[in-house]
Amino acid sequence: MTDLAMLAMDAHGGLERWRQLKTVSARLLQGGVLWKLKGQEGVLDDVHVTVDLRKEWASHRPFGQPDRRSSFQPDRVAIETSNGDVVEERANPRDSFRDHKFDTPWDSLQLAYFAGYAMWTYMNAPFLFALPGVETVERSTSIDRACSSDTTTESTWQEARQLHITCQRSQTCQESSCRPNTRSFHVSLTEAQRRRRSS
């Protein structure tokens, strides 16, 4: 793992602290044009999401109806009652997006898959860098002029460094269902952070 990946994790409380936790939950108030475009407007406007920090699992509630919740895993997605009874489910949900275009509507299971996958990733970042099968390589460095939020009126230099992340397999998938996945993350360090890091 690169020192830049470690720096990003340290800035979020550190890997050891993160490993003490099992799940994280949040209330989401969200909107936007994507949900309407996909025929799912209002479903995720005001929900609670819980994600597992050890395996790929996420759940949104309520999901469509007050007594419903979603259950996302990479190889299975379901809509369940609040008691855990399965209302509908789909194995290999990623395959259901094949041949979709930008404006192709989604069914409720596709929404559950997309929202679960996204929130699991967002709420586990940057600690995903430490998962088995994840490799990090620092790709580039560029210097940008940016406004500082401190009390001075002068601009400060920021160093933007890019991490190239390659995941050979998800943490919980089995070899037969693994799909290589590549993502890039941008990490910005202020000049003060760089000096602290180098001392």
TL;DR?
By secondary structure, the protein is of the alpha+beta class.
String of helices and strands: HHEHEEEEEHEEEH
Q: State the helical fraction.
A: 10-25%
Q: What is the domain tally? A: 2
Q: Which word captures the global form? A: globular
Counted beta strands: 9
Mean pLDDT: 79
Which percent range describes the beta-strand content? 35-45%
Number of helices: 5
Distance from N terminus to C terminus (CA atoms, Å) equals 21 Å
Reported for the largest beta sheet, the result is: 3 strands, antiparallel
Radius of gyration: 19 Å
Order of the strands making up the biggest sheet = 1-2-3
Structural class: alpha+beta
Stretches where pLDDT is under 50 for at least 5 consecutive residues are 143-158, 169-196
